[in-house]
Amino acid sequence: MLSYPETSIVAVALAVDAMIFSFSYSLVLKRSRWLAAFKLAASVGIFQALMPLIGFAGGIKVRPWVEAWDHWVVLAVFGTLGLSVIRNAWKGEKEGENTGGGEPLGLIALLAVGIATSIDALAVGICMAIGSMCGRNLDLTDALMAAGIIGTITFVLSLLSFGSTRLLRKLPQRGLETLAGILLIGLGVQNLISHLAGT
């Protein structure tokens, strides 16, 4: 039977990477902000919902394969995006002349972010299949409900994180963009270290 409180807690924990990315993305984006925010939230929410179902279907067989490369994918995606943000912030313009304000993510980038922020959810689906997370003796209906909860919570928290940066909009643009890049790189590095340390 599905445990709704446990599933909600798991969903919030899984949404942290997406929240940090949304926060960082909002720091540098100036145009089409809320359309871009919705697309990003939809992307991460959909992948957070799909990954547990894939993990649930695959069960324990895919766990060693996932653990072997997930942290490298996250590091590559977040590191590349972070370095790109920092490079654009310091492209030679004087402070206050950087009018680009970041570009809305394209489809490929949205898919990459969706996958990178949701790989841990694949492991959650595996744990659901073996009965060690979100309840015991879960059937397909329970797994679908859990996936819906996880995806919805990620979607909402991503939008909230994106909107929370309005408080920082008056700070220097170059500093905000550099901070955003550092946060993204740091997220990828932290994920790598935690996996290599076995935590």
Task: Write a structural description.
- By secondary structure, this protein is mostly helical.
- It has one domain.
- It is 73% helix and 0% strand.
- The radius of gyration is 18 Å and the shape is globular.
Summarize the structure.
Helix content is 73%, strand content 0%. With 199 residues, it is an all-alpha fold. The protein has one domain.
User: Which bin fits the share of residues in helices?
Assistant: over 70%
Instruction: Tell me the total number of β-strands.
Output: 0
The shape is: globular
Gap from first CA to last CA? 28 Å
Listing every helix as H and every strand as E from the N terminus to the C terminus, the arrangement reads HHHHHHHH
The rounded Rg comes to 18 Å
Taken together, the total number of domains comes to 1
Mean pLDDT: 80
Question: Count of helices?
Answer: 8
Fold blueprint:
Layout: H1 4-14, H2 16-28, H3 33-58, H4 63-89, H5 107-116, H6 119-129, H7 140-163, H8 173-196
Helix pairs in contact: 1-7, 2-7, 2-8, 3-5, 3-6, 3-7, 4-5, 4-6, 4-8
Q: Which features characterize this protein?
A:
mainly alpha, 8 helices, single chain, globular, 199 residues
